[in-house]
Amino acid sequence: MSASILFDTPGPKSRRNTLVINIIGALAIVGILWWVISGLAAKGQMEASQWDDFLQADTWLDYLLPGLANTLKAAAIAIVGSVLFGIIFGIGRLSTNWLINGVCSVVVEFFRAVPVLLMIVFFNIFISRTLEITNNSAMWAVVAALVFYNGSVVAELIRSGVHNLPKGQREAGIAIGLTRGQSLRIVEIPQALVAMLPALIGQFVVILKDSALGYIISFNELLFFGRTYSSPNGNVLQALVVVAAVFIIINFTLSKIATILSRRLSSRGVGKTKPGAAAMVGGPAGLEDVEPGGKAAPDKA
Question: Are 209 and 116 in contact (CB under 8 A)?
Fold first, then answer.
C-alpha cells in the first residue's frame, strides 16, 4: 500500500512550509543547546579538568566497566526471565480453560499496572529481610521487578501476535490432526514470536534502561558507580553525561537491530507465484493435485 493512500501527498506549498518549520525547529534546538552549554561554561563545568577523569583507563577499569558489566548482567537475566514469563502467561491467556485464562489475565494485568520502581523497592525488602538473602540482593530485586513487569508486556505481545495471525494457520494445524493446544505451541506461538521480534527487541531496550532504577536501592550498576566515583571529585554532571552516552550507544544499537529485523521480516515469505499454478493440498494419505476449479485432478496411471 503506497503512502498516498493513507494521506494526501503534500503539494509544493506544504513542502515549503514543512521545510521552514523544520529549519526553525533545528535552529531552536541549536539555540537551546548553546544556551545550556554557555551557562555550564560560565560555571566552569566545561573545563577540561572536569572531563579528564573519564579519559583515564583507571576510571573505566575500576568503576564504569564493572558497573556496565553489572547492568548488562542484570538486563540479560531479566530478558531471559521476561521471555519465559511472557511465553508461559501468554499461552495461559490464550487458553480456553476459563480458570487458567482468568488467573493468567489477573497476574499479567496486575504486574503491568504496578510501577517498576515500586516493585524494585518491594522485592529488595522482601528478598533481604523476608528471605534473608544478602548476597546480591539488590541485583535480584532489580531482576525480579524487571521480569514481572516486562514479562507481562511480553505476554501481551504474544497474545496479540497470535490473534493477528491469519485464521488459516490454526485451521491448517487442526486439519493435519493437531489439537488446539498443539497448534498453539507448534504453529502459532513460533510465528507470533517471529512477527513480534522487533517489538520484543524494543522491550529489551526498556529492560536495559530500567535497570538504572536499581540506583535507588544501591545496586552497583553503571549509574551507581558513575555517581559514586564523581561525587568526591565534584564532576557529577560530567559522569551523568558519560553514563547517558553509554546507554544511548547501547540502546541505539539495539534499536538499529530491531529496524533491520523489521525490514527483513517484512519481506520474508514474499514469493513469486505463477498465475494459474496448481495448488497442493496435503492429507494423511499423501498429496493430491487440485485444479484451479477446485476439483481433484484424475489420477495418472
Answer: no
